[in-house]
Amino acid sequence: MQRVVDLDFESWVCPVPLRDTPTVVMGHGGGGVMSGELIEHLFLPAYGAAAAAELGDSAVLSIGGTRLAFSTDSFVVKPMFFPGGSIGDLAVNGTVNDLAMSGATPLFLSTAFILQEGTELSALGRIAEAMGTAAQVAGVRLVTGDTKVVDSASGDGVYINTAGIGVIADGVDIDPRRARPGDAVLISGDIGVHGVAVMSCREGLEFGTTVESDTAPLHGLVADMIATGADLHVLRDPTRGGVAASLNEIARASAVGIDLVERDLPVPQTVRDACSLLGLDPLQVANEGKLLAIVPPESADQVLEALQAHPLGRSARRIGTCVPDHPGMVVARTGLGGTRVIGLPIGEQLPRIC
Amino acid sequence: MQRVVDLDFESWVCPVPLRDTPTVVMGHGGGGVMSGELIEHLFLPAYGAAAAAELGDSAVLSIGGTRLAFSTDSFVVKPMFFPGGSIGDLAVNGTVNDLAMSGATPLFLSTAFILQEGTELSALGRIAEAMGTAAQVAGVRLVTGDTKVVDSASGDGVYINTAGIGVIADGVDIDPRRARPGDAVLISGDIGVHGVAVMSCREGLEFGTTVESDTAPLHGLVADMIATGADLHVLRDPTRGGVAASLNEIARASAVGIDLVERDLPVPQTVRDACSLLGLDPLQVANEGKLLAIVPPESADQVLEALQAHPLGRSARRIGTCVPDHPGMVVARTGLGGTRVIGLPIGEQLPRIC
C-alpha cells in the first residue's frame, strides 16, 4: 500500500507558542487577536508552500482570464433559530457577503452539513428551507453539497459550511490594503444588532422590544456602490469581532490610522442597553447585514447617497476618516473631546454567534 | 429592522416522511439509501428553485467560457490519526478526488475548521501540516479558510470542511449518466482498505499486519487516462458506501445494469478477514484512494494499461461490464455460477469513516 503523505506525526511543534495555552480555547474562534495568531503561527507555517500568502475571508483567483472570488465559512450559531433568522439564513448570507466584500457578484454556493444524531428532521427542514429562500433572495444557486452525521455526544444540532464562487467585474479593485489617508469610513446601518439578538435569545433577556438579527445579503448594496463609478478602496462586513476587529484589520493591512467620531456611531438604544447589561462593547459585537466602506474623500457623498437609496442602507452614515497618524490603530474621539483606542478584540466576547 | 427572509418556522413538514424516523440517525450520513432520501425528500424540496437539479458530489459550472468543477466535503473521521494518514490527508485528497472524478484539474481549496475547545494545538498542527503536504503532493493551493470553536460538549476534536475548484479541459465529458451497455467497469486497485484501516484502529483489532489507509490524490491517474484519448464515460471514487454505493448510483443515473465478476474483485486477504470478523461486506467499505472508471469497450485495454502504468493504479483491473438487462441494478456473478444482487447500502455500515 502506498503512503503518499508520510509525516512524522509525533514531531510537530508550534513554531511560535500560542498565547499560553496548549489547547484550543473559545477565543481561537472569535475573529480577534487569537484567531489571527492561529492563522499566522499555526496554519500558515503548517501549510507551508501550499498556502496562499493570506488565508483571508475570501480569495481572488484568476481562471481563464476571469477573476473569481472564492470563500468559505462554517456556522455553529447557538441557538439555531433566533429572532430575525436562523443558522440557515446566516450560512447563505454570510458567504454571499464575503464574496460581495471583494466586489464579486455571488453566483454559486456549496452547502455541507455536520448533523448531530437525534436532531429533529423538521428543524433541519426549516433550516434548509431558510437556506433556499435566502439563496433565492440573493440570486445564488446551491449547486453541490455533503452531509455527515456524528453521534449525539459529538455534535450540537446542525453545523453548516457554505463555500461560494462569485465573479469580479473588470475595473473593480477592492482590497483591505487599499485604504489611504483622507479616505472616508462609511457604515451601512446600525451596529451590533445580530450579536445582541442571539445573546438576548440565548440568555432569555428582554429589552422591551425584541431585537432581531440584521442578517441580509449585501451584494445589492455593493452593486449600487460600484454603479456610482467611485473607486471603492475597501469593503468589509463586520461579523465576528464587530466593527472593532474589521477596522483594525484594515488599518493594519493598509498601514493607515483610522479616526472614528464616537457620537456618529449608529448604535440603537436597545443594543446599547443590552451591551451595558452584558458587559459588551457594541463595537465588538457581530453584525450580519452591515458593511463598512472605505472610499476616497471625493466620492464619499456620492457613495453614501447610493447606500441610503438602498433598503438595506437607509441609515448609512459616515463614521470616520483614515489618517496618516497612528498607522495600524483605530482611535475614537469621545464626546468629551478625549480619545480612546479601539483595540482588536483578543478572544471571544460572544461565543457561537455565527 | 428589515427581515429579508421571513419564514413560518413552525409549519415545515417533510414532503415525504423519511423512513420511520423523526430525527437524524447515523445512516443519514452513510452515503447510501438514507443519504439519498435526505437529499431527495428534504434538501431538494426545501431549497426549492435555488437548488441545482442534482446536489451531487461535484457541480460543473460554466463561468466566462471556462468549465469549472466545484465540490465540497466535510470530514469527521474518528480517530483523527489512523494508520496511513489523518483527517488532514483525507480532507485534501477527498476534495481533490471529487474534482478529479469530473475530469477536472484541481487548483484551489478552501479549508474550514470546527474545533472542539480543549483540542491539543499540537494535534491541530500535525493535521494542518498533513494538509499542507497533501496539497503540495496534489499540486493545489489552500487559498481561503475559516475557523470556528465550539465548547467541549459540542464537538469532537477537529471537523474539517474543504471545498475545491478545478478546471475541466475542452472535450472532456465525464458524467454519471454516460454509462452505456457494453462499457467496461475498471477499478484502479484493492477494495476496502481505508475503511478497514480506520475500523481496525478504532476497535483495536489486529490482523497480523497493519492495514494502512489508501488515502491518495487521484487526479494524476485521471490525467493519464484522459491522455490516452479514450472517451471516458464515468469516473467515481468509491468512498462512503464503497464500490456498492458508487456502482448503484451510476447504474441508476445511466439506466444500465452492471454485471460484476466476483472473483475479479481485488479484495486483499487482510480486508477479507477483517470484514468477516466485523460482519461487513468489502463492497460497502470506504476507499479513499481508488477510482472506478466506466469506459467504452474498445478503449478498455488502453485505459487499463494507462492505469497500471501509474504508481497508484498498478493493481488496476477490469471487474465487470455494463449491460442492457436489469437497468439500475448491480449484480455479481459468484464463483458457483450463481448471481447475487449488490444493493445500495441503506444506512451507515461504518460511522465516521471519513
Automatic annotation (TrEMBL), chains A, B:
Report domain PurM-like N-terminal positions: 57-168
- The chain positions of domain PurM-like C-terminal read 180-326
Q: Which InterPro entries match?
A: HypE, PurM-like_C_dom, PurM-like_C_sf, PurM-like_N, PurM-like_N_sf
Please give the Pfam families that the UniProt record associates with this protein. AIRS (PF00586), AIRS_C (PF02769)
Extract the Gene3D superfamilies matched here: PurM-like C-terminal domain (3.90.650.10), PurM-like, N-terminal domain (3.30.1330.10)
- Coiled-coil regions, chain positions: none
Give the highest taxon in the source lineage: Bacteria
Q: Which NCBIfam families match?
A: hypE
Q: What protein family does this chain belong to?
A: Belongs to the HypE family.
Name this polypeptide is given:
Hydrogenase expression/formation protein HypE
To which species is this protein native?
A: Streptomyces fildesensis
